[in-house]
Design a protein that fits this description.
This protein is mainly beta. It has two helices and 13 strands, in the order E-E-E-E-E-E-E-E-E-E-H-E-E-H-E.
């Protein structure tokens, strides 16, 4: 897989309820959701040469229409153990409204056994530009509330949540971390100062758009 393909960070599939029977004009609108990355940090930029594994655990997604009550929010059950390197959109859904203003979701620890993010929220493996392997393990919890007014069309609508992966590594050089055997571990017990910067960067890195 080419490094550029790693820029697609996508939620695994789950069973979702319908969002409604139709818009105010009587037309039901179809949509699906993709979570992706943007920037060059996981190909060739900053101090990171490539990300070779990337997993996240996401829960409690809600699409919210503009000027509507809680009964109009579309909820996505979770948790979703997300392989950020394996693009798979959520199943198609039906919305009863044609104007979306907010997407809310949580990044929380995954309690499931056997998952790459078991007990974690975010896990990455990669190599720096010097070829040094590194791994980031985080148990931090994030709540994202992304506000963006998006006008839906008559055809299939695709929401994209984009993480600025460049920003994840802003101010961080894994080569500066202490080695554990032959890998720079960045977690609560190793290079915690680098982890703190990484986690703060993740909190500021998401946006939403409607794919053209």
């Amino acid at each position: 897989m080419r490094p550029e393909s790693l820029l697609s960070l996508v939620l695994l599939c789950g069973c979702l309820p319908d969002g409604g029977q139709g818009t105010d004009t009587g037309n039901a609108l179809r949509a699906d959701l993709i979570v992706g990355g943007e920037g060059l940090a996981i190909s060739q930029a900053r101090d990171v040469q490539a990300v070779t594994a990337a997993h996240m655990n996401i829960n409690g997604l809600e699409i919210k229409p503009c000027d509507a009550g809680e009964e109009d929010e579309l909820e996505y059950p979770g948790p979703f153990a997300v392989d950020l390197r394996d693009p798979q959109p959520l199943p198609e859904i039906t919305l009863a409204y044609d104007l979306v203003c907010e997407l809310e979701f949580h990044v929380e620890p995954n309690p499931a056994d056997g998952e790459p993010v078991d007990g974690l929220t975010l896990y990455l493996e990669g190599r720096t530009n010097t070829g040094q392997p590194f791994a980031v393990s985080s148990g931090a919890q994030w709540e994202f509330e992304i506000e963006e007014e998006l006008s839906l069309q008559d055809a299939l609508n695709r929401f994209r949540v984009l993480f600025d992966v460049d920003l994840w590594f802003d101010g961080i050089d894994p080569d500066d971390g202490d080695l554990t055997v032959d890998t720079v571990l960045i977690d609560a017990d190793h290079n915690a100062d680098l982890l703190a910067v990484f986690e703060a960067n993740v909190a500021e890195s998401a946006r939403m758009e409607l794919e053209d």
